Amino acid sequence: MLVPLYEAVYERLDVGAETHLLGLGCGSGLALLMAAARGATVCGVDTDEPRLDLARERLTAPRAPGGHGAPGGHGGPGRSARLGPGGPESPCVQEAAANAAFTVVTAFEPLSALDAEGSGAAVSAAASTLAAAAARTERGGAVVLAGWGPPERCATSGVLRVGARLADPMYSPGERREEPTPARWRLCGRDDLEELAARAGLRPDGSGRVACPFGYADMDSAVRGLLSTGLFDAAERATDPTQVRKEITEALHPHRRADGTVWMPNVFRYLICRV
Q: Which Pfam families does this chain map to (predicted)?
């Protein structure tokens, strides 16, 4: 669903053969795969081991850009894809940075990590992660943050509120609070990306908005797709999976079209910073 975001950022930064890219929270590796297809040397880290396994499979497949079928992803003359668990201090990041400093760092979904506990401590942790990544980036290199756009332009925001409400009925998705909360999502404030960048010691150098519609073949695909994001895990723990699926389905009904497909227009925002 975020392919338009990745493409817009890579086009703006002219990601290509001279790019040494680090993907923070790389997930299942699609953004890294797209960068590798443009000729970039890529390195990715994530705390979700199953998703990291999928990224490794994608990036090391014999026909993948730069892939060669072996763990570590060596392929193409002098190019490689490195993947590992954790964050900027991961051994794979240290190895990649030892060869050459990164020219681009991406944190395409920082707010999911930032708001995992809904606390100021989580914001500080996210800023520390970005600062650690920036320390391995060449002077003038780019660090990219991304988040949801204005809620009135994100149809999916109403569905995601279901997860926050079920996880903690007393929690408002737009509320800032210091104590921990099981809710994993909240509305992205207008200056959230800039605030995070400032805490990480990064200098903003442009931003943009990209349309990223969420489209599904049918209602069942939409429910399964949304559940796969992990944003409803806390809701399932607080209630039960059947209840969560029921309420997601109800929230999706306004977005179901006559042909049975589900379509939700969204806007995502990105901020480019310089080291």
A: Methyltransf_11
Per the prediction, the chain carries an average pLDDT of: 85
Which pLDDT does position 77 carry in this prediction?
Answer: 34
How many CA within 13 A on the CB side of residue 2?
Answer: 22
Encode 223-239: b = buried (16+ Cβ within 10 Å), e = exposed. beebbebebbebbbebb
Mean pLDDT of 82-93: 94
Task: Report domain extents, the chain.
Answer: 3-154+172-216+263-274
CA–CA dist 230, 235 (Å, integer) = 10
Least confident of 96-100, 132-136, 219-223: 96-100
Do residues 273 and 202 touch, judged by C-beta distance below 8 A?
yes
Tell me what pLDDT residue 230 has: 82
Q: What are phi and psi of 25, to 5 degrees?
A: 60, 50
Helix segments in 39-168, DSSP class H: 49-60, 91-99, 110-114, 120-134, 157-167
Class of domain 3-154+172-216+263-274: alpha beta
